[in-house]
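Progress note, sequence design subtask.
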Protein backbone atom coordinates (compact mmCIF):
# COMPACT_ATOMS: atom_id res chain seq x y z
CA UNK A 1 0.00 0.00 0.00
CA UNK A 2 1.27 3.50 -0.72
CA UNK A 3 1.96 5.85 2.15
CA UNK A 4 -1.05 7.89 3.19
CA UNK A 5 -1.91 10.41 5.82
CA UNK A 6 -3.76 8.41 8.47
CA UNK A 7 -5.61 11.47 9.72
CA UNK A 8 -7.46 11.61 6.39
CA UNK A 9 -7.80 7.93 5.50
CA UNK A 10 -10.28 8.63 2.69
CA UNK A 11 -8.17 11.17 0.80
CA UNK A 12 -8.01 10.02 -2.83
CA UNK A 13 -9.70 6.66 -2.10
CA UNK A 14 -11.68 5.42 -5.10
CA UNK A 15 -15.14 4.41 -3.94
CA UNK A 16 -17.96 3.18 -6.10
CA UNK A 17 -21.31 3.93 -4.50
CA UNK A 18 -24.05 1.58 -5.72
CA UNK A 19 -27.61 2.72 -5.14
CA UNK A 20 -30.49 0.24 -5.38
CA UNK A 21 -34.21 0.95 -5.33
CA UNK A 22 -35.36 1.65 -1.80
CA UNK A 23 -36.80 4.66 -0.04
CA UNK A 24 -33.47 5.03 1.81
CA UNK A 25 -31.89 6.06 -1.53
CA UNK A 26 -32.43 9.67 -0.47
CA UNK A 27 -29.95 9.11 2.40
CA UNK A 28 -27.34 7.97 -0.13
CA UNK A 29 -27.16 11.47 -1.54
CA UNK A 30 -25.97 12.69 1.87
CA UNK A 31 -23.57 9.76 2.11
CA UNK A 32 -22.18 10.71 -1.31
CA UNK A 33 -21.70 14.30 -0.11
CA UNK A 34 -19.95 13.21 3.09
CA UNK A 35 -17.61 10.83 1.27
CA UNK A 36 -16.62 13.52 -1.25
CA UNK A 37 -16.12 16.01 1.58
CA UNK A 38 -13.85 13.48 3.33
CA UNK A 39 -11.63 13.45 0.24
CA UNK A 40 -12.82 10.28 -1.51
CA UNK A 41 -13.23 10.04 -5.28
CA UNK A 42 -16.75 8.89 -5.97
CA UNK A 43 -18.45 7.20 -8.90
CA UNK A 44 -22.12 6.33 -8.57
CA UNK A 45 -23.96 3.44 -10.21
CA UNK A 46 -27.73 3.26 -9.83
CA UNK A 47 -30.10 0.40 -10.59
CA UNK A 48 -33.25 1.04 -12.66
CA UNK A 49 -35.34 0.79 -9.49
CA UNK A 50 -33.15 3.41 -7.77
CA UNK A 51 -33.95 5.85 -10.60
CA UNK A 52 -37.59 5.69 -9.47
CA UNK A 53 -36.62 7.07 -6.06
CA UNK A 54 -33.99 9.71 -6.79
CA UNK A 55 -32.69 11.41 -9.91
CA UNK A 56 -29.15 10.72 -11.10
CA UNK A 57 -28.56 14.46 -11.45
CA UNK A 58 -28.40 14.72 -7.65
CA UNK A 59 -25.52 12.23 -7.49
CA UNK A 60 -23.86 13.76 -10.54
CA UNK A 61 -23.82 17.16 -8.85
CA UNK A 62 -22.56 15.73 -5.55
CA UNK A 63 -19.89 13.40 -6.96
CA UNK A 64 -18.84 15.65 -9.83
CA UNK A 65 -19.12 12.74 -12.29
CA UNK A 66 -21.84 11.37 -14.57
CA UNK A 67 -23.88 8.58 -13.01
CA UNK A 68 -23.98 5.19 -14.70
CA UNK A 69 -27.07 3.05 -14.52
CA UNK A 70 -27.45 0.73 -17.48
CA UNK A 71 -25.27 -1.84 -19.19
CA UNK A 72 -26.72 -0.70 -22.51
CA UNK A 73 -27.65 2.97 -22.18
CA UNK A 74 -25.34 4.11 -24.98
CA UNK A 75 -24.30 7.13 -22.88
CA UNK A 76 -20.86 5.73 -22.42
CA UNK A 77 -18.27 5.38 -25.18
CA UNK A 78 -16.99 2.41 -23.34
CA UNK A 79 -18.74 -0.91 -23.92
CA UNK A 80 -16.74 -2.43 -21.04
CA UNK A 81 -17.80 0.14 -18.48
CA UNK A 82 -18.49 -2.44 -15.76
CA UNK A 83 -14.98 -3.88 -16.12
CA UNK A 84 -13.41 -0.42 -15.94
CA UNK A 85 -15.47 0.50 -12.89
CA UNK A 86 -14.71 -2.85 -11.26
CA UNK A 87 -10.97 -2.28 -11.71
CA UNK A 88 -11.12 1.38 -10.73
CA UNK A 89 -12.91 0.94 -7.39
CA UNK A 90 -10.93 0.29 -4.20
CA UNK A 91 -14.23 -0.33 -2.42
CA UNK A 92 -17.76 -0.89 -3.67
CA UNK A 93 -20.41 0.23 -1.19
CA UNK A 94 -24.04 -0.50 -1.99
CA UNK A 95 -26.34 1.75 0.01
CA UNK A 96 -29.18 1.10 0.20
CA UNK A 97 -28.99 -2.62 -0.53
CA UNK A 98 -32.53 -3.93 -0.90
CA UNK A 99 -33.64 -7.51 -0.16
CA UNK A 100 -33.88 -8.12 -3.91
CA UNK A 101 -30.36 -6.84 -4.51
CA UNK A 102 -28.93 -8.96 -1.65
CA UNK A 103 -30.61 -12.07 -3.08
CA UNK A 104 -29.20 -11.33 -6.53
CA UNK A 105 -25.73 -10.70 -5.14
CA UNK A 106 -25.88 -13.98 -3.22
CA UNK A 107 -26.91 -15.80 -6.41
CA UNK A 108 -24.24 -14.08 -8.52
CA UNK A 109 -26.66 -12.40 -10.94
CA UNK A 110 -25.20 -9.93 -13.42
CA UNK A 111 -28.23 -8.53 -15.25
CA UNK A 112 -27.57 -4.87 -14.52
CA UNK A 113 -24.52 -2.60 -14.44
CA UNK A 114 -24.18 -2.63 -10.64
CA UNK A 115 -24.38 -6.42 -10.31
CA UNK A 116 -22.00 -7.08 -13.19
CA UNK A 117 -19.52 -4.55 -11.78
CA UNK A 118 -19.63 -6.34 -8.42
CA UNK A 119 -19.01 -9.70 -10.10
CA UNK A 120 -16.07 -8.29 -12.02
CA UNK A 121 -14.28 -6.69 -9.09
CA UNK A 122 -11.53 -7.99 -6.84
CA UNK A 123 -12.05 -5.15 -4.40
CA UNK A 124 -13.97 -5.45 -1.12
CA UNK A 125 -17.73 -5.12 -1.24
CA UNK A 126 -19.77 -3.56 1.55
CA UNK A 127 -23.57 -3.44 1.70
CA UNK A 128 -25.85 -1.27 3.83
CA UNK A 129 -29.14 -3.21 3.91
CA UNK A 130 -32.43 -1.30 3.97
CA UNK A 131 -35.82 -2.94 3.95
CA UNK A 132 -39.01 -3.60 5.86
CA UNK A 133 -38.39 -5.41 9.17
CA UNK A 134 -40.33 -8.51 8.07
CA UNK A 135 -38.34 -8.72 4.85
CA UNK A 136 -35.14 -8.38 6.91
CA UNK A 137 -36.26 -11.24 9.18
CA UNK A 138 -37.37 -13.47 6.27
CA UNK A 139 -35.54 -16.78 5.95
CA UNK A 140 -34.59 -16.03 2.33
CA UNK A 141 -32.91 -12.75 3.33
CA UNK A 142 -31.10 -14.48 6.22
CA UNK A 143 -29.77 -17.08 3.80
CA UNK A 144 -28.62 -14.44 1.31
CA UNK A 145 -26.81 -12.57 4.06
CA UNK A 146 -25.13 -15.67 5.39
CA UNK A 147 -23.85 -16.54 1.93
CA UNK A 148 -22.55 -13.00 1.41
CA UNK A 149 -20.93 -12.93 4.86
CA UNK A 150 -19.15 -16.19 4.16
CA UNK A 151 -17.75 -14.66 1.00
CA UNK A 152 -16.29 -11.82 3.05
CA UNK A 153 -18.86 -9.18 2.08
CA UNK A 154 -18.98 -6.46 4.74
CA UNK A 155 -22.48 -5.96 6.13
CA UNK A 156 -22.93 -2.49 7.62
CA UNK A 157 -26.20 -2.26 9.53
CA UNK A 158 -29.13 -2.15 9.36
CA UNK A 159 -30.46 -0.29 12.39
CA UNK A 160 -33.66 -0.78 14.29
CA UNK A 161 -36.29 1.94 14.49
CA UNK A 162 -39.34 3.41 12.83
CA UNK A 163 -39.65 2.53 9.17
CA UNK A 164 -41.03 4.43 6.19
CA UNK A 165 -43.85 1.83 5.88
CA UNK A 166 -44.99 2.52 9.47
CA UNK A 167 -43.50 -0.67 10.97
CA UNK A 168 -40.96 -0.56 13.77
CA UNK A 169 -38.04 -2.96 13.81
CA UNK A 170 -34.72 -3.81 12.29
CA UNK A 171 -34.17 -2.87 8.66
CA UNK A 172 -33.48 0.88 8.53
CA UNK A 173 -30.38 1.82 6.59
CA UNK A 174 -27.62 3.18 8.84
CA UNK A 175 -27.31 6.94 8.97
CA UNK A 176 -24.90 8.42 6.40
CA UNK A 177 -22.52 9.65 9.13
CA UNK A 178 -22.30 6.11 10.57
CA UNK A 179 -21.63 4.65 7.14
CA UNK A 180 -18.92 7.27 6.64
CA UNK A 181 -17.32 6.01 9.88
CA UNK A 182 -17.52 2.43 8.60
CA UNK A 183 -15.79 3.44 5.37
CA UNK A 184 -13.12 5.33 7.33
CA UNK A 185 -12.51 2.34 9.59
CA UNK A 186 -12.28 0.11 6.55
CA UNK A 187 -9.42 2.18 5.11
CA UNK A 188 -7.60 2.80 8.37
CA UNK A 189 -4.64 0.48 8.87
CA UNK A 190 -5.71 -1.90 11.65
CA UNK A 191 -3.72 -2.13 14.89
CA UNK A 192 -2.54 -5.63 13.94
CA UNK A 193 -1.42 -4.72 10.41
CA UNK A 194 1.63 -6.81 9.50
CA UNK A 195 1.21 -9.17 12.48
CA UNK A 196 0.68 -12.91 12.33
CA UNK A 197 -1.90 -14.26 14.73
CA UNK A 198 -2.43 -17.95 15.43
CA UNK A 199 -5.48 -19.14 17.29
CA UNK A 200 -7.25 -22.32 18.31
CA UNK A 201 -11.02 -22.73 18.38
CA UNK A 202 -13.70 -25.34 18.94
CA UNK A 203 -13.61 -28.65 20.80
CA UNK A 204 -11.33 -31.62 20.39
CA UNK A 205 -12.49 -35.22 20.06
CA UNK A 206 -10.63 -37.99 21.85
CA UNK A 207 -11.33 -41.42 20.43
CA UNK A 208 -12.71 -44.18 22.65
CA UNK A 209 -13.06 -46.57 19.74
CA UNK A 210 -13.57 -46.06 15.95
CA UNK A 211 -17.13 -44.71 16.44
CA UNK A 212 -17.12 -43.01 19.86
CA UNK A 213 -15.25 -40.12 21.35
CA UNK A 214 -15.00 -37.81 24.37
CA UNK A 215 -15.67 -34.16 23.57
CA UNK A 216 -17.36 -31.02 24.92
CA UNK A 217 -19.99 -28.44 23.98
CA UNK A 218 -17.72 -25.87 22.32
CA UNK A 219 -19.26 -24.61 19.06
CA UNK A 220 -16.23 -22.63 17.90
CA UNK A 221 -18.27 -19.39 17.79
CA UNK A 222 -15.99 -17.49 20.16
CA UNK A 223 -12.79 -18.50 18.39
CA UNK A 224 -14.19 -17.89 14.91
CA UNK A 225 -15.43 -14.43 15.94
CA UNK A 226 -11.91 -13.69 17.21
CA UNK A 227 -10.42 -14.87 13.92
CA UNK A 228 -12.66 -12.45 12.01
CA UNK A 229 -11.98 -9.58 14.37
CA UNK A 230 -8.21 -10.15 14.15
CA UNK A 231 -8.43 -10.30 10.35
CA UNK A 232 -10.37 -7.02 10.35
CA UNK A 233 -7.69 -5.52 12.59
CA UNK A 234 -5.21 -6.24 9.81
CA UNK A 235 -3.57 -9.45 11.06
CA UNK A 236 -2.66 -12.47 8.97
CA UNK A 237 -4.76 -15.07 10.75
CA UNK A 238 -4.22 -18.82 11.02
CA UNK A 239 -7.05 -20.67 12.74
CA UNK A 240 -6.47 -24.19 14.02
CA UNK A 241 -9.97 -25.53 14.45
CA UNK A 242 -11.49 -28.53 16.13
CA UNK A 243 -14.58 -30.13 14.54
CA UNK A 244 -17.30 -27.44 14.31
CA UNK A 245 -20.17 -26.65 11.94
CA UNK A 246 -18.92 -23.16 11.04
CA UNK A 247 -17.51 -22.21 7.64
CA UNK A 248 -13.95 -20.89 7.47
CA UNK A 249 -14.01 -17.08 7.75
CA UNK A 250 -13.03 -15.40 4.47
CA UNK A 251 -9.41 -14.33 4.37
CA UNK A 252 -8.39 -16.63 7.25
CA UNK A 253 -6.29 -19.79 6.84
CA UNK A 254 -8.07 -22.65 8.61
CA UNK A 255 -6.33 -25.86 9.56
CA UNK A 256 -8.52 -28.68 10.83
CA UNK A 257 -7.61 -30.76 13.83
CA UNK A 258 -9.57 -33.49 15.60
CA UNK A 259 -7.76 -34.53 18.79
CA UNK A 260 -5.68 -32.52 21.26
CA UNK A 261 -2.58 -34.15 19.84
CA UNK A 262 -3.58 -33.11 16.25
CA UNK A 263 -4.20 -29.59 17.48
CA UNK A 264 -0.84 -29.44 19.26
CA UNK A 265 0.95 -30.64 16.13
CA UNK A 266 -0.81 -28.08 13.90
CA UNK A 267 -0.10 -25.24 16.37
CA UNK A 268 3.60 -26.09 16.65
CA UNK A 269 3.88 -26.33 12.85
CA UNK A 270 2.27 -22.93 12.39
CA UNK A 271 4.09 -21.23 15.26
CA UNK A 272 7.20 -19.84 13.52
CA UNK A 273 6.86 -16.08 12.85
CA UNK A 274 3.71 -15.90 15.00
CA UNK A 275 3.37 -12.65 16.97
CA UNK A 276 0.24 -13.48 18.96
CA UNK A 277 -1.21 -16.84 20.03
CA UNK A 278 -4.79 -17.04 21.32
CA UNK A 279 -6.00 -20.37 22.75
CA UNK A 280 -9.80 -20.22 22.55
CA UNK A 281 -10.25 -23.95 21.93
CA UNK A 282 -11.82 -26.17 24.55
CA UNK A 283 -9.09 -28.79 24.39
CA UNK A 284 -9.88 -32.04 26.17
CA UNK A 285 -7.76 -32.33 29.31
CA UNK A 286 -7.90 -36.13 29.25
CA UNK A 287 -8.13 -38.80 26.60
CA UNK A 288 -8.76 -42.56 26.73
CA UNK A 289 -5.44 -44.23 27.47
CA UNK A 290 -6.01 -47.05 24.98
CA UNK A 291 -8.55 -46.27 22.25
CA UNK A 292 -9.94 -49.60 21.04
CA UNK A 293 -9.17 -50.65 17.45
CA UNK A 294 -12.63 -52.14 17.03
CA UNK A 295 -16.05 -50.95 18.21
CA UNK A 296 -16.43 -51.84 21.90
CA UNK A 297 -19.21 -54.41 22.28
CA UNK A 298 -21.96 -54.08 24.85
CA UNK A 299 -21.37 -56.99 27.22
CA UNK A 300 -20.33 -56.18 30.81
CA UNK A 301 -22.62 -54.08 33.07
CA UNK A 302 -19.77 -51.74 33.89
CA UNK A 303 -17.06 -50.42 31.68
CA UNK A 304 -14.07 -48.57 33.08
CA UNK A 305 -12.37 -46.08 30.85
CA UNK A 306 -8.83 -45.20 31.83
CA UNK A 307 -7.99 -41.60 30.96
CA UNK A 308 -4.63 -39.93 30.65
CA UNK A 309 -3.68 -36.25 30.37
CA UNK A 310 -3.49 -34.61 26.96
CA UNK A 311 -0.69 -32.17 26.14
CA UNK A 312 -1.38 -28.63 27.36
CA UNK A 313 -0.88 -26.74 24.09
CA UNK A 314 -1.08 -23.27 25.57
CA UNK A 315 1.34 -24.01 28.43
CA UNK A 316 3.78 -25.56 25.95
CA UNK A 317 3.71 -22.54 23.61
CA UNK A 318 3.97 -20.07 26.51
CA UNK A 319 6.91 -22.03 27.91
CA UNK A 320 9.04 -21.72 24.77
CA UNK A 321 12.13 -19.54 24.89
CA UNK A 322 11.02 -17.66 21.77
CA UNK A 323 7.35 -17.31 22.31
CA UNK A 324 4.57 -15.16 20.92
CA UNK A 325 2.34 -12.94 23.06
CA UNK A 326 0.14 -15.62 24.65
CA UNK A 327 -3.55 -15.20 25.43
CA UNK A 328 -5.48 -17.99 27.10
CA UNK A 329 -9.11 -18.50 27.98
CA UNK A 330 -10.38 -19.81 31.29
CA UNK A 331 -13.65 -21.72 31.25
CA UNK A 332 -14.96 -21.89 34.80
CA UNK A 333 -18.15 -22.79 36.62
CA UNK A 334 -17.16 -20.99 39.88
CA UNK A 335 -14.54 -18.62 41.36
CA UNK A 336 -13.93 -17.24 37.88
CA UNK A 337 -11.30 -14.66 38.71
CA UNK A 338 -9.44 -16.80 41.25
CA UNK A 339 -9.01 -19.72 38.85
CA UNK A 340 -8.28 -17.42 35.88
CA UNK A 341 -5.46 -15.67 37.76
CA UNK A 342 -4.09 -19.08 38.73
CA UNK A 343 -3.98 -20.12 35.05
CA UNK A 344 -2.45 -16.79 34.01
CA UNK A 345 0.45 -17.32 36.42
CA UNK A 346 0.85 -21.10 36.19
CA UNK A 347 0.87 -21.12 32.37
CA UNK A 348 2.94 -17.89 32.26
CA UNK A 349 0.47 -16.12 29.98
CA UNK A 350 0.43 -12.48 28.92
CA UNK A 351 -3.33 -12.31 29.26
CA UNK A 352 -6.34 -14.46 30.06
CA UNK A 353 -10.02 -14.05 29.16
CA UNK A 354 -12.23 -15.76 31.69
CA UNK A 355 -15.79 -16.84 31.01
CA UNK A 356 -18.41 -18.78 32.91
CA UNK A 357 -19.50 -21.98 31.26
CA UNK A 358 -22.36 -23.03 33.51
CA UNK A 359 -26.08 -22.34 33.27
CA UNK A 360 -28.23 -20.77 30.55
CA UNK A 361 -25.86 -17.84 30.14
CA UNK A 362 -22.77 -20.04 29.90
CA UNK A 363 -20.31 -19.35 27.09
CA UNK A 364 -20.54 -22.76 25.41
CA UNK A 365 -22.56 -22.76 22.17
CA UNK A 366 -24.13 -19.41 23.00
CA UNK A 367 -24.22 -16.41 20.64
CA UNK A 368 -23.41 -14.07 23.53
CA UNK A 369 -20.62 -13.99 26.07
CA UNK A 370 -19.14 -11.86 28.84
CA UNK A 371 -15.49 -11.86 29.75
CA UNK A 372 -13.17 -10.86 32.58
CA UNK A 373 -9.91 -10.02 30.84
CA UNK A 374 -6.91 -10.15 33.16
CA UNK A 375 -3.20 -9.44 32.69
CA UNK A 376 -0.28 -8.89 35.11
CA UNK A 377 -1.06 -5.30 36.05
CA UNK A 378 -4.58 -4.75 34.84
CA UNK A 379 -8.00 -6.17 34.13
CA UNK A 380 -11.21 -5.20 32.41
CA UNK A 381 -14.76 -6.57 32.41
CA UNK A 382 -16.44 -6.91 29.03
CA UNK A 383 -20.21 -7.01 29.57
CA UNK A 384 -22.54 -9.53 27.97
CA UNK A 385 -22.90 -8.97 24.22
CA UNK A 386 -22.76 -10.94 20.94
CA UNK A 387 -19.54 -12.90 20.52
CA UNK A 388 -18.86 -11.03 17.26
CA UNK A 389 -18.80 -7.74 19.17
CA UNK A 390 -16.97 -8.92 22.29
CA UNK A 391 -14.33 -10.44 19.99
CA UNK A 392 -13.65 -7.00 18.52
CA UNK A 393 -13.24 -5.51 21.98
CA UNK A 394 -10.94 -8.31 23.08
CA UNK A 395 -8.79 -7.99 19.94
CA UNK A 396 -8.49 -4.24 20.57
CA UNK A 397 -7.30 -4.93 24.16
CA UNK A 398 -4.86 -7.60 22.94
CA UNK A 399 -3.49 -5.24 20.25
CA UNK A 400 -3.04 -2.53 22.86
CA UNK A 401 -1.25 -4.76 25.39
CA UNK A 402 0.83 -6.35 22.63
CA UNK A 403 2.03 -2.91 21.50
CA UNK A 404 3.07 -2.08 25.10
CA UNK A 405 5.14 -5.19 25.71
CA UNK A 406 8.76 -4.28 26.39
CA UNK A 407 10.27 -6.24 23.51
CA UNK A 408 7.83 -5.01 20.84
CA UNK A 409 9.75 -4.03 17.72
O1 LIG B 1 -16.76 -22.44 21.24
P1 LIG B 1 -17.89 -21.68 21.90
O2 LIG B 1 -19.16 -22.49 21.96
O3 LIG B 1 -18.07 -20.31 21.32
O4 LIG B 1 -17.47 -21.48 23.45
C1 LIG B 1 -16.40 -20.66 23.76
C2 LIG B 1 -15.50 -21.27 24.85
C3 LIG B 1 -16.27 -21.39 26.16
C4 LIG B 1 -14.99 -22.67 24.43
C5 LIG B 1 -14.26 -20.30 25.00
O5 LIG B 1 -14.71 -19.01 25.31
C6 LIG B 1 -13.30 -20.79 26.07
O6 LIG B 1 -13.45 -20.53 27.25
N1 LIG B 1 -12.26 -21.54 25.63
C7 LIG B 1 -11.29 -22.20 26.54
C8 LIG B 1 -11.92 -23.46 27.06
C9 LIG B 1 -10.96 -24.22 27.98
O7 LIG B 1 -10.50 -25.27 27.60
O8 LIG B 1 -10.64 -23.58 29.07
P2 LIG B 1 -9.67 -24.21 30.25
O9 LIG B 1 -9.86 -23.29 31.39
O10 LIG B 1 -9.97 -25.65 30.44
O11 LIG B 1 -8.23 -24.09 29.62
C10 LIG B 1 -7.35 -22.97 29.85
C11 LIG B 1 -6.62 -22.61 28.58
O12 LIG B 1 -5.70 -23.64 28.22
C12 LIG B 1 -7.49 -22.39 27.37
O13 LIG B 1 -6.99 -21.28 26.66
C13 LIG B 1 -7.33 -23.68 26.57
O14 LIG B 1 -7.47 -23.45 25.16
C14 LIG B 1 -5.91 -24.07 26.90
N2 LIG B 1 -5.68 -25.52 26.88
C15 LIG B 1 -6.34 -26.34 27.76
C16 LIG B 1 -6.06 -27.70 27.77
C17 LIG B 1 -5.11 -28.22 26.86
N3 LIG B 1 -4.85 -29.51 26.83
N4 LIG B 1 -4.50 -27.39 25.99
C18 LIG B 1 -4.75 -26.07 26.00
O15 LIG B 1 -4.18 -25.33 25.20
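Output:
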Amino acid sequence: MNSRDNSTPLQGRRILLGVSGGIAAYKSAELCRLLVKAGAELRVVMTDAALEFIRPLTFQALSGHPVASSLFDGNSDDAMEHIDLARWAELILIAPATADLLAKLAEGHADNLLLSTVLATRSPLAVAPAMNQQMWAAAATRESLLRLQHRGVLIWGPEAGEQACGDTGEGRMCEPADLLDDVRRHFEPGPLQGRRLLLTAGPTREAIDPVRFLSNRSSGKMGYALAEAARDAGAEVVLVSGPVCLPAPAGVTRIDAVSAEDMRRAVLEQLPETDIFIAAAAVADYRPAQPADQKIKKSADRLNLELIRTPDILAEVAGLAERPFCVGFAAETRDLEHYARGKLERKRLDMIAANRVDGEQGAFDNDDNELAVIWADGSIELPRQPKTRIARELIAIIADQFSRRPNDD
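The longest helix spans residues 387-404. Work on this subtask will continue into the next period as scheduled.
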